[in-house]
C-alpha cells in the first residue's frame, strides 16, 4: 500500500481538538489573504459547516476540493493534517451512507475522469496476476447515477 493511503486512514481515526476548525479557518484566511472570492466562500464555510455536510462542501466548486486534492497529490502532510477533521467527516458520512443501504454487496458507482495518455499506458502495463495495485493520489467523487 501507499504511504498516502496509510496517512489518510490514520486521519480518519485521529481524535481532533475542539479548535481544529478554527485553526483550519485561520490558516486558510492567511493563505487566501486578499482573494475576495475565496475569502467569501471561507466565511460561508466558517458559518455553515457541519460534519454531516462534508461531502456537500467537497463536491462544490470551491477551495475545499482544490486545496485538499493538491495536498494529496503533493503529499503535503502539514496541509493534510490541517484537513484531518474534514477527511474524517467525509469518511464518517460515507460510512453512514453505506450502513443505511439495504444490501451488503458491492456498491457500484460511476466517475468520469480525464487521464493522461502516459497514465493510461501505465495502467495497461500493470500485471494484475502478480497483485499489482493502482493507487490514486486524490479523492474520487462518484455517483450511483450512471448518467
Explain the overall architecture:
This protein is 58% helix and 0% strand. The longest helix has 16 residues. Helix 1 crosses helix 7. The radius of gyration is 17 Å and the shape is globular. The protein is mainly α and 147 residues long.
Query: Which ranges are low-confidence, i.e. pLDDT below 50, for 5 or more consecutive residues?
Result: none
Largest sheet: none
Mean pLDDT: 84
H and E string: HHHHHHHH
Which structural class do you get from the secondary structure elements? mainly alpha
* Global geometry: globular
How many beta-strand runs? 0
Rg from C-alpha positions?
17 Å
User: β content, as a range?
Assistant: under 5%
Helix content: 55-70%
Task: Specify the number of helices.
Answer: 8
Distance between the termini: 32 Å
